[in-house]
Amino acid sequence: MAVLALASIKSSPGVTTTALALAAASADGPEAIVAELDPGGGDIAARFSRPFEPGLLSLAAAARRPGEPVRLADHSQQILGDIRVLVGPVAGERADAAMRLLSERGVWHELQSGKTLVLADCGRLDGSSSALAIVEASTALVVVCRRILSELQHVHARLPWLRRVAERVGIVLIGDGPYTEAEVAKSLEVDVLGTLPADTNAARILRGEPGSQRALTRLPLLRSATMLVRDLTSATVSADITLIEGVGSGDAQVASAVTAEAVP
Q1: What confidence score (pLDDT) does residue 47 get?
Q2: Are strands 140-146 and 117-124 parallel, antiparallel or unpaired?
Q3: Which of the chain's ends, N or C, has fewer CB atoms near its CB within 10 Å?
């Protein structure tokens, strides 16, 4: 099954919330696990009052024992009904050490042979991140980005590097903004996989505030996430992650304006 690495480039547009929304949207599809693999430390355990183990630390401990199979499901917990999560420790140093050990053991490459959709929350990516090994082993890197010029500029500047690290790169846009999906795809020359709305009610539930998975299904974020995860899983299976067609001539003038602003 697919291993999708989700990350941001500079700001914090809601990578963890996006990963959880996609997992919640997979309830009627393939089994999914959100793996909190942020070298800066995890938030999910605190958000949902869960212990840190089982989680990333117990997974790393299992990887140290020769001959023992290392399965994410054995170290996951459930939140909001049946959303499965591999929680990371709050301390970045412990998360970083666990991830580097798992990289040395080759665990990330083994995940693609399983039947579970792994949604790896990699936090912010930079050249020293221990999450780069997950990105390199992933089916695709999904960059989460708000539809505003400052964030699009940073993504555009890092795209050449990202394409050297990841097999495939796409963007998920968050919220409204002055540019359409097609304009972003054309001007940045990157696949725009879709847009998720800035849904404050759903975001509160996914941050651990009172609510349920059933309540989530009635909210705009989950409706959009359901379509997105369906397209992502079908695209990765067919090895074709291009989901937004090129813009037509009528959009060229606007796309050129975006490029002029986004590329100094």
Answers
A1: 93
A2: unpaired
A3: C
Q: Poorest-confidence range of 53-57, 97-101, 112-116? A: 112-116
Which pair of structure tokens corresponds to residue 253? 């003038």
Residue 124 has pLDDT above 70, yes or no: yes
Among 1, 4, 14, residue whose Cα is nearest residue 196? 14
Q: Which CATH number fits domain 3-262: 3.30.70.100, 3.40.50.300, 3.90.25.10, 3.40.640.10?
A: 3.40.50.300
E strands, the chain, in order: 3-8, 32-36, 77-79, 83-86, 117-124, 140-146, 169-174, 191-196
Q: Which tokens is 257 given? A: 């304006």
Parse the chain into domains and list their residue ranges.
Answer: 3-262
Tell me the per-residue pLDDT of 238-252, one tens digit each, with 9 for 90 and over: 444 443 333 333 344
**C-alpha pair distances (Å), 236 with each of 2, 192, 193:** 7, 14, 12
The burial class, CB within 10 Å (0-12 / 13-18 / 19+), for 253 is exposed
User: How far is C-alpha 104 from the geometric centre of its chain's CA atoms?
Assistant: 22
CA distances to 2, 136, 205 from 70, rounded to whole Å, are 17, 19, 31
For 210, counting Cβ atoms within 10 Å of its Cβ (0-12 exposed, 13-18 middle, 19+ buried), the class is: exposed
Is residue 4 within 8 A of residue 142, CB to CB? The reply is yes
- Statement: residue 115 has pLDDT above 90: no
Q: What is the mean pLDDT of the chain?
A: 85
The structure tokens 């930079």 sit at 126
